[in-house]
Amino acid sequence: MQGRLDDMHDALSCFFASIPYNANYQERAWSYESHYHYTLYLIFRLLSCYTTLTEKENSRGRADIIVETDDYVYIFEFKLDGTAAEALKQVDDKGYAEPYAADSRKLFKIGVGFSSEKKNIAEWEVV
Predict the structure, then answer these.
(1) Distances, alpha carbon 8 to alpha carbons 12, 52, 60, 120, in Å
(2) Among 40, 114, 116, 106, residue whose Cα is nearest residue 74
(3) pTM of the complete model
(4) Are strands 106-115 and 72-80 parallel, antiparallel or unpaired?
(5) If pLDDT is split at 50, 70 and 90, which confidence band does 126 have?
(6) Burial of residue 117 (number of CB atoms within 10 Å: 0-12, 13-18, 19+)
(7) How far apart are CA 36 and CA 80, in angstroms?
(8) Cα angle for residues 47, 117, 121 (degrees, 5° grid)
(9) What does the H/E/C string look like for the chain?
């Protein structure tokens, strides 16, 4: 709500670290990007009264998650066993921020790399 993305990163990392390894009866679920994507969507959706969009389409693709608040727009792209830089490159290549070009809110692009080995956020980069 206040644009404190370092705090968000820390809170999300702690959350993923707290999930017991056997909480999911199918261990292989951790090896799918959709596991992390869906988990974050639920967190954002349940914790906020703001618009939370998943797989938000534009003319060239779809962003993993977009959260719109009164003052901010957060565009999230995830990569499982990939880099935050790869995720941010996709945001730019696919023009996920373009629909917000005339929007007065502050826009953040967040690339997140998840590690299937650590079962947590491995990289987090904000532009």
Answers:
(1) 6, 15, 28, 14
(2) 106
(3) 0.82
(4) parallel
(5) very high
(6) exposed
(7) 8
(8) 35
(9) CCCCHHHHHHHHHHHHHHCCCCCCCCHHHHHCHHHHHHHHHHHHHHHCCCEEEEEEECCCCEEEEEEECCCEEEEEEEEECCCHHHHHHHHHHCCCCHHHCCCCCEEEEEEEEEECCCCEEEEEEEC
User: What is the rounded CA–CA span in Å between residue 53 and residue 83?
Assistant: 22
Residue-wise pLDDT tens digits, 83-120: 999 999 999 999 999 999 999 999 999 999 999 888 88
Burial (0-12, 13-18, 19+ Cβ within 10 Å), 9: middle
Q: CA 77, 79, 85: angle at the middle one, nearest 5? A: 75
Tokens for 125?
């980069």
CA proximity to 114, closest of 86, 89, 78: 78
pLDDT, tens digit (0-9, with 9 covering 90-100), for 41-53: 888 888 777 899 9
